[in-house]
Amino acid sequence: MIARRLFDIRNQYSASATDEKLSLLRRLRARTFRTARDLKQLHSALCFIRAFPDSPAHYRFARSELREIEQRVDALTQTEQAKLVDTGITGTPLHYRFSYAVATWLGRRAHGAVSIDWEDADDPPGLDGILEQILEPSEDEYFDGGYVSGREWLERAAEETDGTDFDWLLAQMTEPRFASIWAQLYDAADLGLTWDLHGAKFSKSLNAFPAKDVCLQRRGMRKPAASVRQEIMRPLESVSRLKPSAGAKMIDVAMASLAVRHRETYHFNHACPHEVYLADVGEGVSIAIFGLQNRHRFPLECTMGYLIIANGAPVGYGGASVLFRQVNTGVNIFDEYRGSEAAFLWVQVMRVYHHVTGCTRYIANPYQLGTGNREALQSGAFWFYYRLGYRPVAPDIRKLARREFAKTKRDRRYRSDITTLRRLTSCDMHLALPGSQQSDLFDERWIEISSMLANEALNAAGGRTRKASADRVAMSLAADVGIRAFEGWTATDRSALRRIAPIVAAANPKDWSTDAKRSLRKLLRAKGGDSEANYARLLSEHGTFLAALRKACRRADR
Asked: Does this model's pTM top 0.90?
């Protein structure tokens, strides 16, 4: 079959494979596909070729055929079309229970295409909790009297309006002051939604960020450099901060890339269009890094998501928790792009984070490796990280990994059994760059200890309200580190100071050197600034704060 053959050679770049791919692409226009299986295989091959094309002609044919996929879907029998439900392919329906953050994004970007999935739950019990906040007083008796169900009431209310029942519901939940309350009510309702992907630019088939130039895979898939650590530390030629309008478009591509795959992540849900960085790593591949909206930032660590883009197409994603000189992260390559240059791409992601934040240690946690993550376990994620220089932190697991790796060297057919893999994935793995010290490591459980110390500081501050207690801690810290006035500080700056102050206070900065206090003042101001990456870099450079907070957490942990 033409679809199967195109899929089989999608990632081969010999002269013969390149010619055969182009021949197959040219023959597609006259070919009819009658099964969902063939169409899915064709779609995956086209996505791959669009992202990693052999030539301009390959790219043009792949893009053109992806635009025609919807017509091919419509030509299938209903039985075969049903097999494409929830694939994310253009022209198909997608069902999912999205969070409020993704639902509101859909309301803005897919108006008229998303509706409540009543087949998922005919009358969701949590829906009443939302409707009761929308009702006018004159309607209360009718609704509370049980004359209509929540579904009936909503459908009648939305009947004469533009859009779907879902669009009408979201239009009622617009008061900014109550955003957090609406989010809680919506998430508690756990509404199933149906997204009609007919003509949807955010389907797997069409979702892309505009690419200036198409770059070709003339040499095939790239492999990581011989020295991964040196490659990570190699300076980047180009990193730009996108204009807010372009940043918003990149966030849309990121949000859609996950939504059509029944996924979402905090890093994209709350990304800030004013802080999106784009790093060119060559041959059409770029890494986008997203800072968070200020109100969604964490008190101490810096959380930044990333999206891998190949010739405009999103091919993988992940998030990173940056804390002092370390970053906890991992990589996810979308199914359509498996068999590409995943190891090379992951090294480039680490390279970009090193450049943007100054981190010198990378941490992969057990879930990323396979603990509680069947897909990662079966795919051998542990060995993916191991071959790039990551090593288990537990001595006994490190020894086991060495023995198992030696077996694979002696016999290429050897594979660790599932029991051994579960042992191997039972602890964190680290990759440390040259110059990184063990004393730079901030144990992740100390984040909780830091929160406990913050709680103690707030309790000791007194105050009639928690906000008053936080204000007292912030003012006391400001005095200790030499912040004499807040002229020029925005409300956002002061709010960020109030969030981080109880944790910083636990490090007892009152007795620090003049230089350490000066750099801390910059750090505190940066926490509420327009660049969370700037805060992350300042945090990585503040050895005094790291050492003092480590000491306080160790003492409390005993």
From this structure: yes
